[in-house]
Every structure is written in C-alpha cells, then in structure tokens.
Amino acid sequence: MRTNNLNPLAVVRNLGILAHVDAGKTTVTERILFATGTTHKRGEVHDGTTVTDFDPQERDRGITIFAAAVSCAWDGHRLNLIDTPGHVDFADEVERSLRVLDGAVAVFDAVAGVEPQSESVWRQADRHGVPRIAFVNKLDRAGADLDTAVESIRQRLHPAPLVVQLPIGSEDGFTGVVDLLRMRALTWADDTTALDEGPVPDGLREEALRRRRLLEEAVAERHPAALEEFCDRETLSADTLIAALRDLTHSGDGVVVLCGSAYRNRGVEPLLDAVVAYLPSPLDVPAVRGENGDERPCDPAEPFAALVFKVNATPTGRLTYVRVYSGTIEKGATVWDAGARRTERIGRILRVQADRHAQLERAVAGDIVAVVGLKSARAGSTLCAPDAPLVLEPPGVAEPVVSVAVEAERSVDTDRLASALARLAEEDPSLGVRTDAETGQTLLSGMGELHLEVAVEKVRREHGLTLNVGRPRVSYRETVGRGVSGLVFRHVKQDGGAGQFAHVVLDVEPSAEGFEFRSAVVGGRVPQEYVRAVEAGCRDALAEGPLGGHPVTGLRVTLADGSTHVKDSSDTAFRTAGRFGLREALRACAMVLLEPVVEVTVTVPEDAVGAVLGDLAARRGRVSGSVTRGGAAVVTATVPLAELFGYATRLRSRTQGRGTFTARPTGYAPAPSEAVAVARR
Ligand SMILES: Nc1nc2c(ncn2[C@@H]2O[C@H](COP(=O)(O)OP(=O)(O)OP(=O)(O)O)[C@@H](O)[C@H]2O)c(=O)[nH]1
Ligand SMILES: [Mg+2]
Questions:
Q1: Cα angle: 283, vertex 320, 421; to 5 degrees
Q2: How far apart are CA 132 and CA 212, in angstroms?
Q3: I want to staple 58 with a disulfide (CB 3.0 to 4.6 A). Which of 53, 107, 432, 466 is the partner?
Q4: Quick check: CB of 545 below 6 Å from ligand 1?
Q5: Which of 21, 26, 139 to mutate to test the pocket of ligand 1 (most atoms within 8 A of CB)?
Q6: What is the separation, in whole angstroms, between the first and last Cα of the chain?
C-alpha cells in the first residue's frame, strides 16, 4: 500500500504498543523488528533476549519497566515504535509516551479479553485522542477465542469493533487468517517464518463471506461515502473499505481488529500493513499549540520546536528522546529550553534501531529521535529555536501513593546516594525524593511497591551502593468531615516599625472538588487583592493537615468577612492570615483521614478461590465480582493499598505460583480510625 502523497512526512508512523501486563506487547514489537528486517533473530521475553526489554531488571523480571523507542521500515514507511510497560506502577511511562504518539496498537490476550490495565490505557489514549487499532494476540493458546475477545472489547471499551480477519484453525491448530478485505488466506507454516498467500479454504468460504458482509454493513453505517456506495451497489470494494476504515480509525468511530499469535510469528505482516494503512501520519494530526496559544504546524520549514518525553542515562551517555513537532534540528545546533530558560547544545542525533543507533545529520518535524549532549533537559521540557520561543504543555505527572525510607548502609555513601536518587528522579518524574522534616530520613515515593523496588534495585546495581530500605508506607490525605463557620483570625503585629494587620473570618465546609475558595465579603471591607492573598495563604495551609501532616483535599473555604488597617495591611499580612486562619479552622473541623484504595483483579485456579477470598477479607477487601474464565477464577475487589504490601508473594505461595493479580488505583477512601495513629508522623 504505497502512498502517492509526495510529502515525505506522509510515510512516517509514530505509534505505541499498549496493553495490560503480559498481553504480548514486547513480543509483538520483537516480531515487528524481525519482520521488518531490523533484527535477524527473534528474541524472547522469557530468555531475556528482546530488543526493547534491554534493562537488566526487565530481563530478570520478564516485564517491561521502561518505555523503549525503536525505528524500523515497512513498505516504504518509517515506523517509530514505542513499546510501553503494562504494569500499573509504570502507567506514567505510558502517559508520557501517549503524549508524543500519533497512533497506537492495543494488544489483547485472546483468552482473557479486555483486562483492567488494557481498559486504563485505552482511556488514557482516549484522553490524548490517539487513534488506535486492536490486535487480539495469543490465538494459539488453549481457550483463545477471537469472537469472545471482540465482544469484551465492545462491552468494556465501547468502540465499534471492525473485524477485518477470520482465524484459520484454533488454539494449537491456529495457522493463519482470512483477510476479509482481499478475501484471501494468509498462513504461516510451523517451520518457516514466511507468509503464504492463497485462496480462502472451502470450509471457511461461507463464514468469510458472512463476516465480510457484516464488516461492510458496519462500515456503511458509520461512513457516509461508504453508505452511498453500499446503497448503489449493495457491496463495498476493498479500496472503499480501506479508505473508510482509515477515516473511522482517525475519528475514533470504529476500531479495526486484527488477530494472530506473536509468539508463533503469525499475523505480524498484516498488522504492519494495517499500521501503514489506517494509523495517522504526523501530517494527519492537529498542529501543536504552545501554552501561550501559538500554533506550530508539522512543517520542517517552521521554527524548531520539540518535546522531551524521556531521558535515559545509559552507560554510553545521556540519551534524550524527543518528538519534533515543527522545524528542523541539526547536529551541533544550539536550542533554547524555554521552560527552564537555558540554552542547550544538540550533540549527536540518533535514530534508535534495535541495538544499532544510526547517526543523523538532522531531524525534522514529525520525527522521534534520541539526542546526545543535552545536559539539563528532562521529560516534559520543550526545546525550541532561540528566536521563536515556545513552551509545550508537559505531560501530566501522577501523584505518588507509596513511599519508603532509604539510607546508605555506610554513612560515607550518603552523598552518593543523594545524587543517585536525584538522577533517578530526573529520568522518572513519577518518582519523588524528599527529606522528612521530623525524622530527617530520605523518603523515596512512587506509584507502587514494584515501582519503588525497581528504583532501589537500580541504585544498588548501577551505583554499587548497599542500602537499608524501610517498609513501604502509603500516602494519606485528609479531608473535612464536618466544617466550621465564623472562625475569626487576626494577624496583628503593631509593635513599632512597619506593622502588619489582617483580620479574616472563614467558613469551611466539605466539597467534592479538591479545593474551592470564594469570597462573601460585602461592601469592599476586604479589597480584591487581599482576597487573593487570603486564597494563596489557604493553599499554603493545605500542605499539612491537623491529623498527621498529610495534604488536605475536598473542602470549600469562604472568606465570610474581615477588615483592614489603613497603614499596616498588606498582601503578606493577608496571606499569613489565610494560612494560619485556615490551619486553625481545620483544627476545629471534624477531619477524616483518607487512604489510597485500589481495585485488584486476582486470577487463580478455581480450587484456590476460597483461600483468596479469605485473604482479601482479612485485608479489608470488598469483593465486587467473581467469574470463571477458561478454568480460572477471576475475582475483583476493592482493597486499601496499605493492606496490599507483600500481596504478590502471599498470593504466589497460596496458589503454588499459579495466581496472578493486577491493581488499579481508584482514588481515596476514608481510613478506619486505627489507621490515624499509624499515619501520624
Ligand atoms: N502462547 C503465546 N504466548 C505469547 C504470545 N505472545 C507473547 N506470549 C508470551 O506472553 C508472555 C508475555 O509477553 P510479553 O511480550 O512480555 O508481554 P508484554 O505485554 O510486553 O508484558 P509487559 O511489558 O510486562 O506488560 C511471554 O512469556 C511471551 O512469550 C502468543 O502469541 N502466544
Ligand atoms: Mg513488555
């Protein structure tokens, strides 16, 4: 499917591979690199030999931790591919990747269908407006069924699935697919990797025709031009279908579904054809806008602007991954980091191709490349032409929910530990490092137990440090259960010299929002600028609540009244009054401690269900569902995160290693009163 468009950017595809943990993203990526001739041997996740899981911990643990970008070529197109992690603790990596992608392949396990984290990443992609196609993988597995998987896509993700293939054979006998667009059979023999093309087997002809008809109807129903042709001719040509499927993919009105078995090497070439045919090029997506509203079209002749989405400190140097949105950068050029107000020099520009890196003289709008030589740019920085500054909105960073205290075993290593942690946080914005004001301990915070375990292990391995690590603790919040009204606070210092005077009356009540502030002061008794200062002071006070010094959320503060002094009132005085006034008001409120809760999905052999339910109950879990799927029981429950530490090990031992679980944060809920003492710092 060659494009006639002469613009060279039309042949670029920036795409991500997204899915629940273990669906086969890394295996799909590996097969893509093989099919495109980028690698000459097929690596396996379980052997620790894949290109994109290159980190030693990824190889040891058999999971993807860091998003990895690689480039390859297919049918005259250049694909810049990002293999993302599926584990929820690394969802921030996915978020940063989605920010710079134009399209995605969502991978599903043909036995399990839509799993919790596939649903989460699907919603993430919705929020970023990233068009996607679906690949139902692992059709070779016992219990695999394309139709059931498609039904779960329809029910849980709500797009219109547009299935363009019919599997040939099932489970161990899955040998290929019928391409419903061209009505031909694509098969892969066991002992070769080559794709065979042939007529549709007789036994499948009728079913293939029926499904082709269903596809035509589904497309005609959603695409006006296709509908017209369908009405005229009562059928749709392959070309019309392809063009319509492309439009529906871009608009999100339908999702093309393909299938295969990455592990067995079946279905990868048609997936690549679909990427090229249906996913957008950089020219198809809207121009980016800077925070000041300036628009930059995807054009190499425009001033240069790029977003840094990943920084990776490798043994050979610091690799900074950028998505170029407009303009051109050349090797050796000086660029401006508009957010940090610093200049940076582009050393080398690399296209990362598996284990080889090709050096480039320049990179243009629409491309994803790695840059060597940048010193301070971090994930979220905008790089731009010095004479045309622009700041692009950085990717959002999730708030950490778990922390551990870390210290170097030998006190002489304290400084080395501090710099190692600082480097780590630079690479991963979802990690936080701070010093506890009361205990002086260094606290490392992140998205979950595994996230912190990986971070600590990285420090150990890469810096050769021996560390003492405390028990993980969850991050609590505080909220207002019952409010107060008419709390009077005066900030007065009038003992000679420039005095300070601010008088405020505050009402505090619970709210569904994080923090709301309004003024009900009448007759200009408190001028507008001081009202703003009171609001700023209140925000300062939210940092530490009265129960245990945790951040405060879910409240509305009303400035009910107040007064000023002709000489001694100032912004500073009112800010101080806002801060200490709200602090006092919160002490008078009935406060509620909130703890993070997660929804867990536990998959275990049926005979272990009793033990799992008992264990979840002991962890204050509330079971919300239990179903049987392919001989395994799938239990979903809401559990406080604090009770989930060590659960992975416990589950393994209770199920002789056959149980797995995933957790998805669902927010905060009131903690039982015993937790208040634990949470007090
Ligand atoms: N039977 C079968 N197994 C597969 C297939 N694709 C992948 N696997 C296996 O499934 C396991 C997980 O595959 P990965 O490719 O690591 O999955 P992933 O989605 O990258 O996982 P994370 O990155 O950890 O989220 C590995 O043991 C693969 O060998 C397939 O088509 N069929
Ligand atoms: Mg992976």
A1: 140
A2: 21
A3: 53
A4: no
A5: 26
A6: 63
Instruction: For residue 110, give every residue at least 6 positions away whose Cβ sits within 8 Å of its Cβ, in sequence order, or none.
Output: 136, 137, 138, 139, 141, 144, 145, 146, 149, 259
- Give the residue, out of 263, 266, 451, 660, with the most ligand 1 atoms within 8 A of its beta carbon, to mutate for a pocket test: 263
Q: Whose CA is nearest to atom 4 of ligand 1?
A: 263
| Three-state secondary structure call for residue 622 | strand
HSE-CB for 325 with a 13 A CA cutoff? 26
**pLDDT tens sequence across 487-537:** 999 999 888 777 899 999 999 999 998 999 999 998 889 999 999 999 999
Check if 261 has its Cβ closer than 6 Å to any atom of ligand 1: yes
Residue of 337, 344, 346 lying closest to 389 (CA atoms):
337
Q: Number of C-alpha atoms within 13 angstroms, CB side, residue 128?
A: 25
Q: Would the CB of 46 count as within 6 Å of ligand 1?
A: yes
Find the 24 Cα to ligand 2 centroid distance in Å.
7
CA distance 493 to 474: 40
Q: If pLDDT is split at 50, 70 and 90, which confidence band does 253 have? A: very high
Q: Which atom of ligand 1 is nearest to the CA of 44?
A: 29
Q: 45: Cβ below 6 Å to ligand 1?
A: yes
- Amino acid at site 5: N
